[in-house]
Write a structure and sequence with these properties.
With about 300 residues, the chain is mainly beta. It is built from 5 helices and 17 strands.
Length: about 300
């Protein structure tokens, strides 16, 4: 078991509710110059869940599960900014009102731009939900540190999920082996690069070049996959640094806009090569926590 400061990490309740789907008026134009009109961010998404492919949907920036907000009128203001920063991947969520009261789910990540956190609930639960339901997040994880690996930083990661991902001690001092489904080359990271912090939001794996997509098998990524972002340091923002490695989770679907693609929320990062990604097709939160496609 990895040694952490979990006994010092603060735990608190956060309240939110499902956010309505957001679709702009008029056409959008993809990176080929073709206009499209499709579902996008937000919503109680009934037929998309973690463990499924993030590619091939008749949609753009689709968020699986339930997209949640604490302030739909002003998504960048209080209390939604607190919800974004303090909610962590793997946190428990509980519906506290409405027909689905008492049902539980799991936070699977943050989506910048929409400023949603995304919560996985079983399909049978989503079918009983409304946009007025209140959801309570048991937030815990920001401030979590690895005691024996001080150069590796953690963000947005529930302490219990950290211990269940399958991380092992590396061959060299200070190194960790982390299971991932995909190793994404630095050149593919697009929208969101340069953001000043990584405690909320995501950034996109660009999928506009077919040869690169095929070479790195980017089109095989699924919602909830743990992925490695090579030569990217997320310590104090999202930046290209040779030798750095960041680990994230895939939170939204492929996109048609230039500079966009599947979105990755940050979980771990190191400015040097102390994180060693290990390819594992089962490295997905659906498999680890038995939710989504691996749920009951």
């Amino acid at each position: 078991m990895l040694k952490t400061n979990v006994d010092k990490v603060v735990e608190m309740f956060l309240e939110c509710k499902p956010g309505q789907p957001r679709v702009g008026i008029g056409w959008k134009v993809d990176h080929h110059g073709s206009p499209f009109l499709l579902p996008g961010i937000g919503g109680i998404t009934l037929n998309v869940q973690v463990g499924e492919s993030a590619f091939g949907l008749a949609g753009d920036h689709i968020e699986p599960g339930v997209s949640c907000t604490a302030n739909s009128e002003k998504p960048n203001d209080f209390p939604n900014n607190s919800l974004q920063i303090l909610s962590c991947v793997g946190n428990a969520a509980k519906i506290i009102s409405g027909e689905a009261k008492g049902e539980t789910g799991i936070v699977i990540g943050h989506h910048g731009g929409s400023e949603h956190i995304i919560v996985e609930f079983a399909t049978s639960v989503k079918e009983r939900m409304t946009y007025e339901d209140k959801i309570l997040i048991r937030a815990k994880g920001q401030g979590l540190d690895l005691i024996d690996y001080p150069e590796i930083k953690l963000f947005n990661l529930d302490p219990t999920l950290l211990q269940r991902i399958g991380i092992t001690h590396g061959d060299s001092p200070g190194m960790l082996n982390v299971p991932v489904t995909t190793m994404v080359p630095a050149a593919c990271m697009g929208s969101g690069v340069g953001r000043a912090h990584v405690g909320a939001g995501d950034y996109d794996v660009m999928t506009s070049d077919p040869a690169t997509v095929k070479k790195y098998k980017l089109d095989q990524m699924r919602f909830g996959d743990f992925v490695a972002l090579m030569d990217h340091d997320n310590s104090y923002g999202r930046a290209f640094v040779q030798g750095a490695v960041s680990i994230g989770i895939l939170v939204h679907s492929d996109c048609r806009l230039a500079g966009h693609g599947p979105g990755i929320s940050t979980l771990m990062t190191c400015p040097t090569s102390l994180i060693k990604p290990i390819l594992d097709p089962d490295a997905n939160i659906a498999n680890v926590l038995k939710i989504g496609t691996h749920g009951p």
